[in-house]
TrEMBL record:
InterPro entries: DUF6705 (IPR046551). Residues 1-22 form the signal peptide. Residues 4-132 form the DUF6705 domain. Keywords: Signal. It comes from the Bacteria. This is DUF6705 domain-containing protein.
Amino acid sequence: MKIMKTFIITMLIALSFFNCKAQTVNLSTYNPSANDKSGKYYKDIDGNFDPFLGVWKNTTGSTTFKVELFKEVIPQGDSPFDYSYDTIQGKYYLIENEGLIDENIICIGENMVKVGYVIIAKSNDGVSMNGVIYDTCIPDDLNSTFGELKMDITATNTAHWTITRKGMKLVGMNYVIPTNIILTKQ
């Protein structure tokens, strides 16, 4: 009987090690400058990302700008960090004559090798989203243009989208994607 009791206690202790999980904490406490080795998961517990997630569109003339935003968990497992956090990421499309026989996708902004998706953002209040965006629609010889993205929910299913240039500006170089429009959630 004593051997069986020892075996059960040993098994319970061993299983408890396999069932350890990272501590989940509110994303609002996330501090990217900290040397965090906590193993914590900084989660959007308050649902501040939710109003932004999904497909958004703006059509001007025959050109449609379509944005897809989704929540991603970003692991920071590289030394000296050991934590993960929620972020809003996304991609976009410029489409000519969307839904018509002669529809033409002018540009797709999806992934960049070193940064992941072309849109990386967060929201602390569910009304304003701030982040960065890469305009990969610029001709190849100029690479992409990096900008500061701001998206403000102005009414149910409507948002104001603005991009402000960051970094060095090359003469004659402008964004290809829209920089100041109203988007409608689909």
